[in-house]
Every structure is written in structure tokens, then in C-alpha cells.
Amino acid sequence: MKETYRPLFEPYTLNNGVEVKNRLAVAPVTIYDSGPDGELTPAARRFWEDRFKGFGMFIMPFTNVHPSSIGFESPNAFSEDHLPTLSEYARISHDQGALAVAQIAHSGLRAHPSMTRGYGVVAPSALPGRARALADAEVEALVAAFANAADLAIRAGLDGVEIHGANGWLIQQFFSGTYNRRADRWGGSLEKRLAFPLAIVDAVDEVRRARNRPDFIVGYRFSPEEPGPDGLTMADTFALVDVLADKPLQYLHISLWDFYKKARRGADTSRLRMDLVHERLDGRLPLIGVGNLYTADDMAKAWATGTAEFLAVGKSVLLNPHLVDLIETGRESEIETCFDWDKADSYRYTPAMLDGTRAGTDFYPPSKQFELRYRSEEY
Questions:
Q1: For all residues of the chain together, what is the average pLDDT?
Q2: pLDDT of 352 over the 70 cut
Q3: Sequence-distant (≥ 6) Cβ neighbours of residue 373 within 8 angstroms
Q4: Per-residue pLDDT tens for 199-247?
Q5: pTM attached to this predicted model
Q6: DSSP codes of every residue in 190-232
């Protein structure tokens, strides 16, 4: 291995005493393939085989905490029936030597009405034709649902959970002035818009304490900004970071399409979001950085900025089933950065992933044969 990559493989001890063997995490990649109750399918098992061998941590795909959460094919964690699947994810990760963290989440207004099992589509505030507003008791029930998901994760042998407060899903919807128009304890002022995310963090920690599992990792993912006049700004994110840093979390995980994106508003727009957030944290919690880090040199360059304690890798993991091995054995020049349809089977994509790549959406790596048609700029 080249010396320039060695810092990526230094261990890190979290504030609960758990050692992560290196600074590389598998980003929560959605593969849009699961059984009718979130089960792993043969195609999913084939995709995950040896996919994150050598990584310190594997963050599971979006894992639904309640039936009203479901917006696409993904794992579930709201019933005893889901323990076998969650346990299988834990085994897959542990067999590859990585800690296994479930990303617990709720789609909110982005749930699919045909998949929510009669609950309909719910949101912090009503959106006519799209979603109904949650009643106070329902908000409380969803806080409990996140706690239950964490309990199932513990019982399944997973090493932790990541509370998904990013990418416009329900937790971010509560934090955002764009979607949260409530006038009760769950909305209005910035402090009240923070109530739902913080209640979830506290409820998950209570489960960990009740199970006497201080070693169980709890992380939180967030998007730093939103578009629109009422969208989140960097100033809002600083407020979020400050309160989260006082909670018994092990890490924060920023969600970015590009590691080097600069702030839009609410802070110095000449500076990187990564730099601003890391500076605000000031060492109180480690930060996972992410955003189009394909090659070993991309990762080393991002690491050298000093703005993250960990790097999450997503698209490169999709293209390179043995990514860490290529870096460790001096074959980093073999790392692929573009999907080649002439050898499509070698990537072991699920059918939905192949469809998305063919359509040219930038959720997946670009392909040599098809132009990029859809670019995501929202977050």
C-alpha cells in the first residue's frame, strides 16, 4: 500500500470505547431490491457478497421503522418478524470484518401510498393531495417506533444504528421550515422544529441504556442545506450540530453529493460545507464525510483536508466489489469510476440498479454508454 493511503487505515476509538478498525465506511447504498417484508433476496445477497470487505463500518440501506415509512424496496425494522433479516445483515457485515450499523428511517411525505399498508402518507404538516398531518399522538408513536427499531437492531446483533435525519426524509421534514408548518410543540420556532429529532435521539439512547449496551453505536445523519426561502441554511445546521454534540452520540454523518460543495447561505459562501461543519463540531464528535469519492487518490485528498474523521464511500463501492483490497495491494489504478455495460455482470447490480444506470440518474455512477440525464442538486 502506498504511504499516502495509510492514514485511511488507522483505527479510531469512539467515545463509547468501540474501536473502528479504519476510517472507511460503506455509505448507506440503496439497491432497490428486497422481499415483500424487506427480506434479502438472492440478487441482494449476490450484490453484498464481499462488497465491503476491509471497511471499518457498513451502514445498512434505509431501514423502515414503521409501515407508514415505506417508499421503496428496503429493509424493515418494526416487527419481530424482521429480526431474521436484520440478523442476516449483521452476519454478512461481520463475516466481512466490518461493524454493522442500521440506518433507521421514515420516508414521511415521500412514502409510497401503495406500500404503507393502509396508513397512507404522513408528514409534519398536511400537503393537499400528497400527505396528511400527523396528530400529536402519532408523532409520539413514531418516536417510539425509532426506539423499537433500535431495540430490534440490538437483538439482531447489529453494532449500532444511524438515525437518518437527512435527504428530505421525515426527520428532516420536521426540522425544515419548508415542510413543518405546525403550531404545536413539534413545530414553529427552530427550537420546536428540533423537538422531533432530539426526542428520537433520546428514545434510542434510552433503549441502549435499558439493554445495558453502552457499546451500541448511535450516529446521526443530516443534510446541511435545502433550497427554497424556508429551506434549511448552514445557520440552522450549526444549531442542529450544537445540540447533537451534547447528546450521547458516537458520530455525525453529513450527506453531500460532492465533498467539496460550498455553503449556499447562512455562513461564509466561499468555504466548504465540510470545513464549516467540522469547525463547528470542534472535536466534540467525529464527522463522516462523503461525496463522489471514487478513487484512492480522491479519498486521500479528502482526508488531507482535515475536515472528517471518517470517509463514507458509496458509488465506488457499487463499481468495485473489492475496493479496499485494490488499495491495500497496490492495485489502486484498477479502481473503476464508470459503469461499463460490456461487463455489466461483474458489478452484480440488482435489476433496479441496472434500470437506474440505464436511465442516467446520478444516484448511480455514470456509465460509458449512456449520458447522465438526471442530476440531483437539492441537497
A1: 96
A2: yes
A3: 359, 360, 361
A4: 999 999 999 999 999 999 999 999 999 999 999 999 999 999 999 999 9
A5: 0.97
A6: HHHHTHHHHHHHHHHHHHHHHTT-TTSEEEEEE----SSTTS-
Q: Cα(80)–Cα(131) distance, rounded to whole angstroms? A: 28
Place of cell 434549511: 232
Give the three cell numbers for residue 20. Answer: 473502528
The residues facing 62 across adjacent strands are 103
Cell numbers describing residue 317: 463501492
C-alpha R_g of the chain: 20
Q: Are 122 and 109 in contact (CB under 8 A)?
A: yes
- 142-169: buried (b, 16+ CB within 10 Å) or exposed (e) per residue? bbbbbbbbbbbbbebbbbbbbbbbbbbb
pLDDT at site 361: 84
- Domains annotated for the chain, with CATH where assigned, are 3-359 (3.20.20.70)
SS3 per-residue string spanning 110-142: HCCCCCCCCCCCEECCCECCCEEECCHHHHHHH
CB 160 within 8 A of CB 153: yes
| Phi, psi of 367, deg, nearest 5 | -115, 155
Q: What is the largest CA-CA distance in the chain?
A: 58
pLDDT for the residue numbered 305: 98
